[in-house]
């Protein structure tokens, strides 16, 4: 009712302003068309239909909003779980992103290589110290260092025996490093080199190889030295004659006899 009264008041005010501005009173009749009761009823019904349609639309929207709200409430715990999972995974995602960055420019690979090199350096240096009677080790650049003087030895200044010991230490260091990383090297093959060692270094080198054999690895050695044959359980003797070369496995007695000989004609002489 208040709204209708306000509307009527507004229409009367507008009509008064129009009447005030008209110079010809006879023209006033042209400004208004008297409304009949039927016209008023039709206008009210039209307004009512419009209001009813608006109300119905509002009801539909309210219903849809309630459904969406209920759905959101039902899904809220799940979204909270997802949010918690994302927050928990964030450190992992950040770490993977950093790893990707490092892998992209090679820094990670370089880091792994340096780490492995440090491990090899530590193992090989200790092995070289043991087999050389405490005389040699490795510098960070894998150069041989004289532990008695602290001086780096150039490659050209190393004797054949010293070079052999350094190579043996690096080879055994790689075997040890592979074992620590979960890998395995099952066989070692050495060709000569023992003849350049003195008695003490030879004993240390053979002892190091013996430890590898005790660990279940196959250690194969080619040598002319009787002392090497004495330290090896299974000896394959290779001899030479006019028709070529012959090879046969030696028994324990034959091996001992070979070691006691002052000279021989095979590879183990």
From TrEMBL:
Question: What SUPFAM superfamilies does the database record attribute to this sequence?
Answer: P-loop containing nucleoside triphosphate hydrolases
Signal sequence range? none
Q: Which InterPro entries match?
A: P-loop_NTPase
Specify the domain of life of the species encoding this protein.
Answer: Bacteria
Name the chain's protein: SMC family ATPase
Originating species: Eiseniibacteriota bacterium
